[in-house]
Specification:
The chain is an all-alpha fold and 258 residues long. The protein has one domain. 68% of the residues lie in helices and 0% in strands. Helix 3 packs antiparallel against helix 7 and helix 6 packs antiparallel against helix 9. 29% of the residues are buried.
């Protein structure tokens, strides 16, 4: 690699780091505890679900609190990235017009910011995993595979939305309405195994259900994901990312609409 190429990579890496740092600092400007506040929400949510579904409204489902928290914590990643994706280009129009740089750095830095905070939530989840009834098994080796495919799926959708939002400004509002509906059709507050056969066939059309079924299999049941779900998640994640990147390439031609 030439020195000029190395310099270019370093330049863009520093830009991404600065953008992520700026977003984190803005979020906690003036807060005495700063980044420590990011621990608060996942900690309270996890303990609340544990207390409610273990002692107050105990479920007949095995370790339902663990299943619920597992689903919610991964839903947080999906909903935050996708709901913010419509603003990746729109909110940075001044930066786009003033500087020449790879546009992909904007969604990358925004997504990384979400992942940083989500990582804090996952640390809380890992600490309370045993309390919720979780058991570490060899199935955890499949978790990075499903998670990588999940992130690829989310990023592909987010990239497409960020471009569509430039010309169709109602896109973000549609996403804000659609996401809560999708939540209830996803195996988070319910388990696929507990559904009647007829209902299970309907919700099976939800393309993100296999991801959450896989998270449940690995983190709740302690078993490897279903082979069909594993293959589906991998193919769908890769396809989504490739399509998203292809659509995003058109972003440079659409900057004039910003």
């Amino acid at each position: 690699m030439s020195s000029s190429q190395s310099l270019g990579i370093t330049k863009w890496r520093d830009l991404v780091i600065n953008l992520v740092s700026k977003e984190i600092k803005i979020r906690y400007t003036g807060a005495a505890l700063g980044f420590i506040w990011s621990l608060g929400n996942p900690l309270v949510v996890t303990l609340t679900y544990y207390v409610v579904f273990t002692y107050i409204l105990p479920s007949n489902q095995d370790r339902f609190a663990l299943h619920l928290v597992t689903g919610v914590v991964h839903w947080m990643l999906l909903s935050q990235v996708i709901s913010q994706s419509g603003e990746w280009l729109i909110n940075n129009n001044n930066l786009i017009r003033k500087l020449r740089f790879p546009r992909i750095l904007l969604p990358l830095s925004s997504a990384l910011t979400v992942i940083v905070f989500w990582g804090v939530a996952m640390i809380v989840y890992a600490i309370l995993f045993s309390l919720l009834g979780g058991i570490a098994t060899k199935a955890l080796l499949w978790y990075p595979v499903i998670l990588a495919s999940f992130i690829a799926l989310i990023m592909g959708i987010g990239l497409a939305i960020s471009v569509i939002q430039i010309t169709v400004r109602d896109t973000k509002h549609f996403v804000d309405v659609f996401l809560p509906l999708l939540f209830w059709f996803t195996p988070i507050v319910w388990m696929t195994s507990s559904l009647p056969v007829s209902t299970a066939k309907i919700v099976a059309f939800n393309p993100i259900a296999p991801y959450f079924n896989s998270f449940t299999a690995i983190l709740h049941d302690g078993v490897s994901p279903n082979n069909i779900d594993l293959l589906f998640c991998t193919i769908l994640g890769a396809t989504s990312l490739l399509i998203g990147l292809a659509i995003f390439k058109k972003a440079d031609k659409m900057v004039e609409y910003l």
